Amino acid sequence: MKSKFHIFFKHDKIVLIKGDNMKRVITYGTFDLLHYGHVRLLKRAKELGDYLIVGLSTDEFNEFKKHKEAYNTYPERKYILEAIRYVDKVIPEKDWDQKIDDVKKYNIDTFVMGDDWKGKFDFLKPYCDVVYLPRTPGISTTKIKEDLK
Q: Where is each Cytidyltransferase-like domain found (predicted)?
């Protein structure tokens, strides 16, 4: 029987080769005006597995579904996230309902969100572990935007 291996590329370089026991983690967000609270969340999410996927809200999703506007565009936010060492892959978040499909498509073991979303994604528990991490006190994109006004 042949062993299965997964080869992942980040910035055109192989970063991980591992068998089927690799733990895959996914989180979602807008990640606008990236701050240390975001980075702490990404670091803690990555610590729960071997491979971290970030579902990044598209500009259209933010505008028409979340009813908010990001300061940075989707390509700019994606570029910034891809530069963070904890992030292995960035995928577009286009709809609230894509999460089950993403969990299945990427063989996700753990779904992670900040605890401000506690309970909202428990419908994923039949497919993967669901973890709500505590937010970093004193920092948020909303607070930064308000402070800059």
A: 26-146
> Taking residues 37-55, what's their average pLDDT?
97
By mean pLDDT, which of 8-12, 72-76, 128-132 is the weakest? Answer: 8-12
**Domain assignment of residue 15, yes or no:** no
Domains of the chain: total: 1
- The active-site residue out of 2, 4, 13, 66 is 66
The model carries a pTM of 0.84
145 included as an active-site residue: no
Structural domain range at position 119: 21-148
In a domain, 117, yes or no: yes
- 68 is annotated as an active-site residue: yes
What CATH number is associated with residue 107?
Answer: 3.40.50.620
Backbone φ and ψ of 30, nearest 5°: -85, -35
Span 20-35, pLDDT tens digits = 688 999 999 999 989 9
Domain assignment present for residue 2? The answer is no
Asked whether the beta carbons of 105 and 86 are under 8 A apart, the reply is no
Q: Would 118 be classed as within a structural domain?
A: yes
Q: Which member of 4, 13, 18, 68 is catalytic?
A: 68
